[in-house]
């Protein structure tokens, strides 16, 4: 039996990964992390989506310690999300250590339930400049988990080399375009669906959607070529 754990935030990327996993795996577990993020609504959105998609096992894990340690516009209400990069070259929405913690805990969960893979929606092609979304980082984490638990585990990144238009195409391929567009929460200002239209996450999302809708056949062909 092919069993997987999906790191699930209720946003566009992780929802697309969850939809795909439900089609391709025999058993899917979703894990959502409550780290005191800017919008607690993310947790509710993830719970509703998991229920509507028929996920039988959805765990919400409290990791509030991350909020105490990691200072970011996504963990502090008094820090506005900025379009400008900080002195270190990273956006102020970067939460240091977030994916290190998430993948570690998801790996432990996968170990306990006997899952062969952890699926995450990180992407190096269209992303916000976060170092913990890069392929090199994921491969290093995968190697550390395998060595640290002495058990084979694959961290799967279906979106790693897709641009946002291709990510929309992937959702459409699994008949989930409207669900992802209308029910997911990607916006840094906490607005479900198309979002505020102003924050960096909304810009990336809307540009990708418009690119896909304007060039469906070409984008779908590009997606299929990358899937081979």
Overview of the structural elements:
There is one protein chain. With 228 residues, the chain is an alpha/beta fold. It contains nine helices and five strands; from the N terminus they run E-H-E-H-E-H-H-E-H-E-H-H-H-H. Strands 3-2-1-4-5 form a five-stranded parallel β-sheet, with helices on both faces. Strand 2 (27-34), helix 2 (41-52) and strand 3 (57-62) form a beta-alpha-beta unit. Helix 1 (12-24) runs parallel beside helix 6 (164-173), helix 6 crosses helix 8 (200-214) and helix 6 packs across helix 9 (216-227). It is globular and about 45 Å long. The two termini are 23 Å apart. The mean pLDDT is 90.
Average residue pLDDT: 90
As laid out across the biggest beta sheet, the strand order is 3-2-1-4-5
Distance between the termini: 23 Å
**N to C succession of SSEs:** EHEHEHHEHEHHHH
Helix fraction?
40-55%
Number of strands: 5
Summarize the structure.
This protein has 228 residues and is an alpha/beta fold.
Helix-strand blueprint:
Blueprint: E1 3-7, H1 12-24, E2 27-34, H2 41-52, E3 57-62, H3 65-69, H4 98-113, E4 117-119, H5 135-149, E5 154-156, H6 164-173, H7 177-183, H8 200-214, H9 216-227
